[in-house]
Design goal:
α1 (about 5-15) packs across α10. β2 (about 45) and β3 (about 45-50) form a beta hairpin. This protein folds into 2 domains: about 20-210, 3-Layer(aba) Sandwich (Rossmann fold), CATH 3.40.50.620; about 235-360, 3-Layer(aba) Sandwich (Rossmann fold), CATH 3.40.50. Helix content is about 30%, strand content about 25%. It is built from 10 helices and 17 strands. It has a 7-stranded parallel sheet with strand order 7-11-6-1-4-5-12. By secondary structure, the chain is an alpha/beta fold.
């Protein structure tokens, strides 16, 4: 692969801009009906969990087809200020309990407050990220309301005529596929695996209506005591638009370090294959596998990666895949949009040189 081809590929990636999709805000539902689509907003280290923005985007599409509103629900202290961000990512309305008592997540309190709000406002669809918090809260809210829940979905489809959402689940390395719905009870509740949908583009200036909800649910005495607080965690994999992964083909720890340097230059996540982890070049937390992740990066760079089944399934929804390999018959080649054939470490050096030169030229260029 020539320097021009590598440079063109990276330049195209760096110049991409997220595009937002316009969906008209629907009218109010009639009293007594089950209407609107809600997404529970989970907070992590003072920020909105990216998986919740993914669900807001899918919720907006479903709400548009059903002719209703797309709403977000968030509890905590100082969270009313988040309404602007949620509006720009697709929420038409944001229900807020802004109270210091809800700064720390308490499952019982959140369940009672959310279940009470659902009984009052009657949404027909309620979405949670399939995180520890989302799965627990979703299941308990479903029990409190006497409705059904479809857990751990990797996709949601809609029968608009029946106003019925179908949750799609996979298991046993996708050998078993299940389509599950909640046809009789309302609301229909789903937890969705993070990474199942792409985050919607941000529409600057788009506003959501804020509905302040009184914190009337009495909180049970807190049974835990905070000993110390850990520092903010680094960005999670789902927060990155680019991923650089290295496998055994980089041949050494030094080669793996080159892949990590490329990830740093691209502000990308530095991942690894099972072979690289087994060699001790990366920790197990860096493993890219469908059993751990479903990725939707704009760019995926595979350096010395063979392309085993669980790895390819994890990256199948990437927009652009660049494979650097010395084996033209490796499975990763068939999944790639652009392939560099050669010694992976040498190709990485060339990519790094080009990228650093391009960044330097941009800094030096006049405004």
């Amino acid at each position: 692969m020539s320097d021009a081809a590598m440079g063109g590929f990276l330049d195209a990636y760096l110049s991409q801009q997220a595009e937002a999709t316009e969906v008209q805000v629907a009218d109010e539902a009639r009293p007594g009906e089950w209407r609107t689509v809600w997404t529970w907003i989970e907070r992590v280290d003072g920020e909105v969990l990216p998986a919740c923005l993914e669900l807001l985007g899918r919720g907006r599409e479903i709400a548009g087809e059903l002719g209703t509103r797309n709403c977000a629900v968030v509890f905590g202290q100082g969270v009313e200020a988040w309404a602007a961000t949620l509006g720009e990512h697709g929420a038409d309305r944001v229900y807020v309990i802004d109270a210091p008592e809800y700064e720390e997540f308490q499952l019982d309190a959140a369940r009672e407050a959310l279940a009470g709000l659902v009984r009052e406002r009657r949404p027909e669809i309620l979405l949670f990220p399939a995180t520890i918090q989302g799965r627990n809260l979703g299941a308990q809210v479903a029990t409190a309301l006497g409705t059904g829940i479809v857990p751990n979905c990797n996709a949601l489809s809609l029968d608009a005529n029946e106003r019925l959402v179908i949750g799609h689940q996979t298991s046993f390395e996708e050998r078993l596929l299940s389509d599950v719905a909640v046809p009789l009870q309302r609301p229909q509740i789903f937890t969705v695996t993070p990474g199942s949908y792409r985050r919607p583009g941000r529409e600057s200036g788009r506003q959501a209506q804020v509905v302040a909800v009184a914190a009337t649910v009495p909180l049970r005495p807190i049974q835990t005591k905070t000993i110390e607080r850990a520092p903010d965690r680094p960005k999670s994999l789902s927060q990155f638009d680019a991923v650089v992964a290295a496998g055994l083909g980089v041949a050494s720890r030094d080669g793996f370090q080159l892949a990590s340097e490329l990830a740093a230059e691209l502000d990308a996540y530095a991942g690894a294959t099972r072979g690289a982890v087994a060699c001790g070049w990366a920790g197990a937390d860096r493993l890219i596998s469908v059993t751990r992740h479903r990725l939707r990066p704009r760019l995926y760079v595979a350096c010395g990666v063979v392309g085993e089944y669980d790895h390819l399934k994890a990256i199948e929804n990437a927009d652009l895949v660049l494979a650097l390999t010395d084996d033209a018959r490796a499975p990763i080649v068939e999944s790639a949009d652009l392939v560099g054939i050669g010694e992976p470490s040498e190709l990485l050096r060339r990519l790094l040189d080009h990228l650093r030169r391009a960044k330097g030229e941009r800094v030096r260029s006049p405004p």
